Amino acid sequence: MPLLEQSGLYYPNRFARWFFLATDDVMGKHGLSAILGLAGLESFMENPPADDMSRQFDFANIAALNQALEDMYGARGGRGMALRIGRASFSYGMRHFGAFAGMNAQAYRDLPQAKQTEIGLKALANVFTRFTDQDTILTEQDDSYLLSIENSAVVWGRITDKPACHMLIGIMQEALHWSTGGYEFIVQETACRASGGDQCVFKANKKPIGLMNKG
Prior knowledge:
The chain has about 220 residues and is of the alpha+beta class. It folds into two domains: about 10-90; about 110-210, Trafficking protein particle complex subunit 3 (Muramoyl-pentapeptide Carboxypeptidase, domain 2), CATH 3.30.1380.20. About 45% of the residues lie in helices and about 15% in strands. The strands form three sheets. A four-stranded antiparallel sheet has the order 3-4-7-6, with helices on one face. Strands 1-2 form a two-stranded antiparallel ribbon. A two-stranded antiparallel sheet has the order 5-8.
């Protein structure tokens, strides 16, 4: 797969490192090596991103990893892998980061589920906007929240038939799971830059679909 044109927009090295750890966890080292090779990023196998917050991991590299998942597993299989990797990457590091770090406190756990949902999504939008070049805006509707992203790293430079920011959906699902003490939510990408949208827009229902592994 030819390398995508570099964007000049970046994630911190540490965030990229979480993606690599998550991919290793979901697919194993051979799977990670295969994906990096397919994405044209073989050099990162021996020299993974540094464990620091320097913004040096280009959006095009993240998009290439996601495209490689689809190339290897097909659209449906790649979507499933990307969702799992997104959820695992949140669990590896982001849940200990910023506002998420305080969500084990009893005062937070005593808040109503609806308030926890709002705080969790605000925390996620803040993390992306503050620490990456991926500006994320949260808005509220009657029955849902919308996260709008002008430049999604996951689909930078890509053209797809359907919305393809599956890794970000996984991150959102796990962020909501974590911030609400185990609830699961429906999260959908309703518009995507890669498939012709002006922005990538994610809709998260306010009402959860169930409680899983609370504790």
